[in-house]
Specification:
The chain is an alpha/beta fold. The chain has 18 helices and 13 strands. It folds into three domains: 45 residues, no CATH class; 206 residues, Rossmann fold (3-Layer(aba) Sandwich), CATH 3.40.50; 130 residues, no CATH class. Strand 7 and strand 8 form a beta hairpin. Bound molecules: adenosine-5'-diphosphate and magnesium ion (MG).
């Protein structure tokens, strides 16, 4: 697009880079309602969005980073593409540290690849981080049938004309946003091969217009996936593709495992204070046991000695379904909605998880449930075995 575009928004109002620069941020944002690709380009190119300010990392990431330790740069103005994230999200310390180091480094040789089992908080972690950093986000849910135009852009019909509208990655790269390719390993080879250039922060030529997009200094390219790009070894993620080696080498990798029991305890106690401590601990223990039963084959294969195997304390059951933090939080949520003190725990559990189980998994899941909850599972939270038998 040209730098001298002059567009008439209303019959009396001429919008170009110069007049836009006289407007307040709010007025600029209002212009986006016109949905005019040329005006969008003028608004998003306004240099105010790129201004960074030095702030205390401890203020931005309180209480997860102590105050006064170091400073980081973040955009001064809240951009319309900033996404409000889950206010109850609790980051895992090592994941936060890795993302922070990558994000705030003076140069970026590699993009960021976050991988881990479903429901471990990968997508929300990136959204939470970007939100705290005031960073605009372009979030793309990748799927097998996605075409390169989605990333680059295409000509659209607008007011009888056919202007070009940038796609997700082209916008993020040009204007300095964070591009999140969510579930990246679900993309086709055709689609992903187009992303090699943005992933290594090199100038990117758009197929349709020939325009060359040079990466903005605030551009960040991140991907999430269930595998580290090596393809699925577990059988759980059969739509995950093995990524091209050339694509993988353009990333630094951060694993997002299930949060520790302590973090999951904080997540539940902060958002669901009505659930008793005893039940909360059992829920978290159950999640831990289910995950061990899920990963047992891989863990067994890695244990080299009988002692190491014993130390793992694996349950006897074997599962193929993932009891993630997503499921745990959803269970707490429905337990509360159904009525913690009135409805048996089993009802909310079956609602969010139990009813979806395969025949092969069902007995193993309920064996674990029974071992941890015993009879209390068929009663609301607060039911006490001793009282019940004394009645
Ligand atoms: N660290 C966390 N703090 C709070 N909630 C979390 C956390 N991790 C996961 N969750 C819960 O799990 C859900 C799924 O997270 P999400 O980021 O979509 O998982 P993923 O992208 O790994 O599949 C969230 O909506 C939230 O309810
Ligand atoms: Mg996700």
């Amino acid at each position: 697009m040209t730098n001298t575009a002059t567009i008439t928004a209303q019959p009396t109002q001429v919008i170009n880079r110069e007049t836009a620069s006289q407007m307040s941020n709010e007025q600029l944002v209002k212009l986006l309602e016109l949905k005019n690709p040329m005006i969008e380009d003028i608004v998003y190119s306004d240099p105010r969005w790129s201004e960074l300010e030095l702030v205390d990392a401890g203020e931005v990431f309180a209480p997860h980073i102590p105050k006064g330790m170091f400073k980081i740069q973040r955009p001064k103005h809240r951009h319309p593409k900033c996404i409000d994230s889950n206010p109850t999200y609790i980051p895992q310390r090592d994941v936060l540290r890795a993302i922070l180091a990558w994000w705030c480094a003076p140069t970026r040789k590699l993009s960021l690849f976050m991988f881990g089992e479903t429901g471990t908080g990968k997508t929300e972690m990136l959204l939470w981080f970007a939100d705290r950093m005031n960073w605009p986000v372009s979030l793309t849910a990748v799927n097998e049938s996605m075409r390169p135009e989605k990333a680059q852009g295409s000509y659209i019909l607008f007011n009888g004309k056919t202007p070009y509208r940038y796609g997700s990655v082209a916008s993020a790269m040009k204007y300095g946003w964070c591009q999140i390719m969510d579930e990246c390993d679900k993309g086709s080879g055709d689609f992903l091969s187009k992303l090699h250039t943005p992933a290594e922060y090199k100038p990117w030529q758009l197929d349709d217009t020939g325009e060359i997009i040079t990466p903005h200094k605030n551009f960040r390219f991140c991907a999430t996936a269930n595998t580290n790009g090596g393809g699925d070894m577990t059988g759980r993620y059969h739509t995950s593709q093995r990524l091209d080696e050339a694509f993988r080498r353009r990333f630094a990798f951060v694993e997002c495992d299930y949060p520790s029991a302590a973090v999951e305890d904080s997540i539940l106690s902060a958002s669901y204070p009505d659930i008793s401590k005893g039940t909360r601990h059992k829920m978290i223990k159950l999640a831990g046991q289910m995950r061990l039963a899920l990963r047992a084959p891989q863990l067994e294969a890695k244990a080299t000695t009988a002692e190491a195997l014993k130390k793992l304390a694996l349950p006897d059951e074997r599962l193929s379904c993932a009891f993630s933090t997503r499921v745990l939080v959803a269970w707490a949520d429905y337990m509360t909605i159904f009525g913690v003190k009135n409805v048996p725990l089993r009802e909310s559990f079956d609602f969010v998880f139990g009813n979806s189980l395969d025949e092969a998994d069902e007995p193993a899941v309920y064996a674990i449930v029974h071992r941890i909850f015993g009879e209390s599972f068929d009663h609301p939270d607060g039911w006490n075995e001793a009282n019940a038998s004394g009645k």
